[in-house]
Design brief:
- By secondary structure, the protein is α/β, with parallel strands linked by helices.
- About 25% of the residues lie in helices and about 20% in strands.
- It is globular.
- The protein binds beta-D-glucopyranose (BGC).
- The site of beta-D-glucopyranose (BGC) has 9 residues, from strand 5.
C-alpha cells in the first residue's frame, strides 16, 4: 500500500444527516459514519451504525425505522446471564448486517459511578466483573454475525455533564481495579475489533490523546491487537493523538474542529513528526480487525429482518432482566381472574425508551405524541408494545381497566374498585445530560401515593433508566423494575406479572435511599438546562476520590444501607444456600456450595460470591452462577473466583498482587446479604497482566 492508501483508512466520514436535514453522502448507508477504502485492495466499505440496543440508523434510509430494540443494557446486565447477552448481541448484529452495516457502535461498558448518569441505561451497571462479562458476551454475539463492535467509551465517561471537556481524575491503581477492569475483561471475552476512546479527559489528558490509556494500558499491558477509534467529536489533534495511540478518527470530515487525520496527519507523516511505522501500525490494526471479524469475506446482504423472531429475543432479554424488588404477601403473580386497574406510563400503547445516539426508531412509529420538541434529544420515544394489551392476552377472562394517570382523581376512582392497582411509572434518561435528582419526575410519586392510599394492593412497574427513590414504598405491595423494556416489553411485563415466567433479574446497581449517601451527592453543572451547553461546560475537574469503591463497594465500606442493594432480586419461589467451602489451590480460588429450590415453583437463582480483602474495607463481587431449579431440586455448584478481584493493582510494577492474609468470603443473594460467610487464609501471589 502507498502512504496515501494507508492514510485513507485512518479517518471515517460522517455518514448520516449531519447536520440534521442534510442528505446522506454518496456511498453511505446513512449511519454514524462510513469509510470507502482505496479500490483494488479487496477491502470492504465500512458502514457504521449506532448502537448497543439495536440498529439506530436505518431511519436515515427507510421511513419509520426498521429495527428491533433490545431492552436497556441494564436489563441485559440484570439477567446476569452470558447466554442472554450473547443472543441479544447476535440478534442486533444480524439486523445490522441485513441493513447493510458492518460496524455496530455497541459495547457500552462505562461503570455506573453515579445513579443519575444519563447513559447508564446503555451500560451494564456498577461492577467491573459483571460489566466485563455481560458486555463481552454481547460483543461476541454481535461479531458472530461478521459485524464489528467496539467497546466504548474508553474510559471514565461515567457522567454526561461536561462530558466533552471534564477531567475524570483518579489514581491509576484504582482506575485499573474498577472501570478499566470492566474493559479489560470485556475485551478478553468479546475480542471487540475496536475500542472507542471517550470524549472526556482522564487525569487531565483527553482520552483520545492519552498515552497511558491507549498505548500503555490497552496496547502494551493488555496486548490489544485491534484499533482505537475516536468518539464522534472526540479527536483534538493529529500527531499528538496518533502518537498517543488513536488509530482512526471517526466522522473526521465534519464533526471535529478539523479533519485531523486527513491533511494534518498526512503532513505530519511526510515531515516525520509521526513515524511511518506508527502509520503502518494504525493501518495494520484496522485491517487486522476487518479480517478477524470477517468483514472482508462476509459483506452485508441487504434483506428484510425477521421482526417476529427478533422481537422474541428482545422479549426474552426483558423477561430475564426485569427485577422484582418487592412482593408483600405474594401479591404477584396476579390471579388471572383479578380485577386490575392499570394506571399511567402510557401502558395502554407502549413502553418508554432512553434517548440519544442509541435510540432505535420504533417499527410502526412512536405511539405517544409528544410536545413536538425538535431540539436534542426530542420527545421520549415509546415502542408500540403495550403492556395493557399483553395483559389482556395473558388474562382473557380478567377485568382490566386503564386510566392515563394524568387525572389523579380519575385514577384513584378506578383503583378504589379494583382488586389490584398497577401503576406504571417512567423516567426519561438520555445521552448528553444526567438526571438532576433521583426522584421520579412529573408528579408520579403523588400519583402512586394517591393510588396506594385507596387500594392496599398496589403494584408499581418502573420503566426507568436509573435507580429512583420510592417514598411510597411501604404503601405498596409490589415493585417491578422493568428498566427500558424494549420492543418486546409489553408481553414480557405481562408474562412476569401473571407468572407465565418467573422474575429472575438481579440489580446491577445499588438503589440509594438518598443522594447524600453517594460519594458525590451533587453533580456540578447538572442544573444547566441546555444539553449542549451542559456537555461543553469548561474546566470541570471531577476527583473520583472513592477510587475503586464504586457503588455497593462504597456503600459497604461506609456502612450505608441502600434502599435496594446491588445483586438483589426476588422471584416466585425461594432458595436456600448451604455448605460454602473455599479452596485455594495453585493460585486458583474456588467456592463450592449447594443451592436448593425450597419453594413451590420452578425458578432461577443467582447466588453470588463476594470477597473481602484482608487490607481493604468493602466487599467485591468475585463470581456468580445462574441456575434454573425445579421445586425441591438441589444442585452443587463450584465457581472459579476472578483472581484480579482478589488483588490490588500495583501501578508501579504493572501487575496484580493478591495479598497474603485472612480473606472473607460471602455466599449471598445481594451485596448486603451477610447470612453465609467464611474466612480463609490465602497466601498471596502476583498476576502479570
Ligand atoms: C456517542 C457514541 C456514538 C457516536 C456516534 C457519540 O455522541 O457518544 O456513543 O456511538 O456519537 O453516533
Amino acid at each position: 500500500m502507498t502512504v496515501e492508501q494507508k492514510l485513507s483508512l485512518v479517518m471515517s466520514k460522517m455518514g448520516g444527516d449531519f447536520p440534521i436535514g442534510t442528505p446522506a453522502p454518496p456511498g453511505s448507508r446513512g449511519g454514524a459514519a462510513f469509510l470507502i477504502p482505496p479500490p483494488n485492495l479487496g477491502l470492504p466499505t465500512l458502514q457504521i451504525s449506532d448502537a448497543g440496543l439495536g440498529v439506530a440508523d436505518p431511519d436515515n434510509i427507510r421511513a419509520n425505522g426498521a429495527s428491533v430494540s433490545l431492552p436497556s443494557g441494564l436489563a441485559t446486565a440484570s439477567s446476569w446471564d452470558e447466554q442472554t447477552a450473547t443472543q441479544a448481541g447476535a440478534m442486533i448484529g444480524q439486523e445490522a448486517w441485513r441493513e447493510g452495516f458492518n460496524i455496530l457502535l455497541a459495547g457500552g461498558a462505562d461503570l455506573t459511578r453515579d445513579p443519575r448518569g444519563g447513559r447508564n441505561f446503555e451500560y451494564a451497571g456498577e461492577d467491573p466483573l459483571l460489566t466485563g462479562h455481560i458486555v463481552g458476551h454481547t460483543i461476541a454475539g454481535i461479531q458472530s454475525q461478521h459485524v464489528l463492535s467496539p467497546i466504548k467509551h474508553f474510559a471514565m465517561n461515567d457522567l454526561e455533564t461536561s462530558r466533552m471537556t471534564m477531567s475524570a481524575n483518579i489514581d491509576s491503581a484504582a482506575l485499573r481495579e474498577s472501570d478499566l477492569l470492566g474493559f479489560e475483561i470485556g475485551i478478553e471475552i468479546g475480542h471487540p475489533g475496536a475500542v472507542m476512546c471517550s470524549y472526556n479527559r482522564l487525569n487531565e489528558l483527553y482520552a483520545c490523546e492519552n498515552p497511558y490509556l491507549l498505548t500503555k494500558t490497552l496496547k502494551q499491558d493488555w496486548h490489544y491487537p485491534g484499533f482505537v477509534m475516536s468518539d464522534w467529536g472526540g479527536t483534538h489533534s493529529a500527531a499528538k493523538a496518533a502518537l498517543a495511540g488513536l488509530d482512526q478518527e471517526s466522522g473526521g470530515d465534519k464533526i471535529d474542529a478539523r479533519p485531523f487525520f486527513g491533511s494534518n496527519l498526512a503532513a505530519d507523516v511526510h515531515t516525520g513528526k509521526v513515524p511511518r511505522a506508527r502509520l503502518d501500525d494504525m493501518v495494520h490494526r484496522i485491517l487486522r480487525s476487518i479480517y478477524a471479524v470477517g468483514l472482508a469475506h462476509h459483506a452485508p446482504v441487504i434483506q428484510p429482518i425477521d421482526v417476529a423472531a427478533d422481537t422474541l429475543v428482545a422479549q426474552h432479554d426483558e423477561e430475564e432482566g426485569a427485577v422484582l424488588l418487592r412482593n408483600q404477601d405474594s401479591i404477584l403473580p396476579l390471579r388471572r381472574t383479578a380485577h386490575v386497574a392499570v394506571i399511567g406510563g402510557h401502558a395502554d400503547v407502549g413502553v418508554i425508551s432512553g434517548g440519544g445516539s442509541s435510540q432505535v426508531e420504533p417499527i410502526g412509529g412512536n405511539p405517544v405524541k409528544g410536545s413536538g420538541k425538535t431540539e436534542w434529544p426530542g420527545d421520549p420515544i415509546y415502542f408500540p408494545s403495550s403492556p395493557l394489551d399483553a395483559m389482556h392476552a395473558e388474562a382473557p377472562g380478567g377485568h382490566i381497566d386503564y386510566a392515563s394517570g394524568t387525572d389523579i382523581a380519575r385514577a384513584t376512582e378506578l383503583a378504589r374498585h379494583a382488586d389490584v392497582a398497577i401503576v406504571f411509572a417512567t423516567q426519561f434518561c438520555f445521552e448528553g445530560a444526567d438526571v438532576p435528582d433521583l426522584s421520579l419526575p412529573d408528579h408520579q410519586n403523588e400519583l402512586i401515593a394517591a393510588v396506594a392510599k385507596v387500594n392496599p394492593h398496589t403494584i408499581v412497574v418502573l420503566e426507568t433508566g436509573n435507580p429512583v427513590l420510592m417514598p411510597w414504598l411501604p404503601m405498596v405491595q409490589g415493585v417491578v423494575e422493568a428498566w427500558y423494556p424494549g420492543s418486546g416489553g409489553g408481553p414480557a411485563i405481562a408474562r412476569l406479572l401473571y407468572g407465565s415466567v418467573s422474575p429472575s433479574g438481579h440489580l446491577p446497581m445499588t438503589f440509594p435511599r438518598s443522594a447524600s449517601q453517594l460519594p458525590h451527592p451533587e453533580i456540578a453543572g447538572v442544573a444547566v438546562t441546555d444539553p449542549f451547553e451542559k456537555m461543553f461546560l469548561t474546566d470541570q475537574e471531577l476527583p473520583y476520590d472513592e477510587g475503586s469503591d464504586v457503588g455497593y463497594r462504597w456503600f459497604d465500606a461506609h456502612h450505608e444501607q441502600p434502599l435496594f442493594p446491588f445483586g438483589y432480586g426476588l422471584t416466585y419461589t425461594s432458595f436456600q444456600h448451604e455448605n460454602l467451602k473455599i479452596a485455594v489451590r495453585e493460585n486458583n480460588v474456588t467456592a463450592s456450595f449447594t443451592v436448593k429450590n425450597t419453594g413451590p415453583r420452578a425458578g432461577v437463582d443467582v447466588p453470588q460470591i463476594y470477597i473481602g480483602l484482608p487490607d481493604h474495607a468493602g466487599r467485591r463481587l468475585a463470581g456468580w452462577a445462574r441456575i434454573a431449579l425445579a421445586s425441591g431440586e438441589e444442585r452443587n455448584i463450584t465457581l472459579n473466583l476472578e483472581p484480579r478481584i482478589l488483588a490490588h493493582f500495583d501501578a508501579g510494577q504493572g501487575r496484580w498482587n493478591v495479598p497474603t492474609g485472612k480473606f472473607r468470603f460471602w455466599l449471598a443473594s445481594s451485596a448486603s446479604d451477610a447470612s453465609l460467610a467464611t474466612t480463609n487464609v490465602v497466601h498471596g501471589w502476583s498476576i502479570q497482566p
